UniProtKB/TrEMBL annotation:
It is a multi-pass membrane protein. InterPro entries: EmrB-like (IPR004638), MFS (IPR011701), MFS_dom (IPR020846), MFS_trans_sf (IPR036259). This is DHA2 family efflux MFS transporter permease subunit. SUPFAM superfamilies: MFS general substrate transporter (SSF103473). It comes from Bombilactobacillus thymidiniphilus.
Amino acid sequence: MNKKLDTKLVMAIIATGLMSFCGVLIETAGNITFPVLMREFHVNMATVQWMTTCYLLMAAIIMPLSAYFKKNFAKRKLFFIAALLFLLGLIIDASATNFILLVSGRALQGAATGIALPLMFNIILEQAPSNKIGLLMGIGTMITAVAPALGPTFGGLVVNSLGWRYIFIFIIPIIIIALILGIIFIKNIDQQSLKRTKLDLHGFISIALSFAGLIISFSNLATIQQQPVKFILPLILGVICLLYFSRHELKTNQPLINIRLLQEKQFTQGLSAYFLFQINTLGLSFILPNYVQLVNHQTAMIAGLLVLPGGALGAICSPISGRLLDQYGARKPILIGATLEIISSLLFSIFATNLTSTKIALFYGLTMLGIGLIMGNIMTHSLSLLPTTQNADGNTLFNMMQQFAGATGTAVISAIMQLVQQKSTATLATNKTIAGARAALIVLVVVVFVGIYLLHKATCTKK
């Protein structure tokens, strides 16, 4: 039976989505500001990257708590706390007098996103009519997907005309609007079902240390030849803590995340595909601006404008693809998106030595159209394979994977490019950059093919 779409529900989704949108917008806009910040605060490239790394790390650490938050706190209160944290982070960043304060503000914004993003999807899964879930998941995905498309252009315009502080100042009114919308439209329909459960402190500390170790390790991957210890030690810490977390969660009566749901094979395949396609998207978002500026000798503004149409296309496609899922099931739109991903990744690798502005805009448009058909739908489909009682845990895992891919994907692709450039025998810096970009694009072809195989398996009808 078809039910009408509740306007209040849509506004609640927009309120929670705006916070995630702003977090990612600042992240991608901030990349444009790195040279300016390095000069102003007298820090190097490895240090300035903590603007992004700290944000993603805090979001990844907070997200495992989303199932616990759901059981113990009303949704409106959670959102109110997240909005205040984000506002405080923006005020600190807009007025920061040193780099430590700047990173602290980003950490608060990451914590806020870690609360708000899972909250948005939990609201959809709990309150949306069954025949509208795909559409609303698409709207949620679209809100967050628009940000990477707008970020570089927004950052370039603001930095060139007003200065980097205005990136944070312009976001403050958006968060205030989100806060007002959330207070008005987020319903506490679960108020009666709240129960005080004990926080799995051992689980939380171990997964937090695991994420910290792995993210710091991958952030140091580019310097593995010069300083291997900075890569190896955090990696060992991350792996040990992850193994401890997995063992502990299977033993405890009140796990932080019910990881037993990973025994559902198709859910795990969908989750893994989601992770790989996120890495592909973020990898391209690192390769292409560098290629445009260092190989094609265009400005950062041009680099941002070239990826803007593709990013916008993918974002607009997300709710449409969700509607296709509601009507025809998940497999058809996902496999159409997979086909576009194959075509675009092969085109990028084939033309890697001669990527003109036209080719970049066209190939990236195909990539993002494919992503728009895949990401929201594979999440919706995978969560539908779980019992309703496990949706919060499944949602947590998807959001954790998104943030972890964000923290590691760019670092890995950056390291591949730098290592190939160091090994290249080319005499010109431009040719070294082309060699690094080509190697990274070939790696992404492999990532896409593995992801497509997992998509096929995840959406097959069970016999």
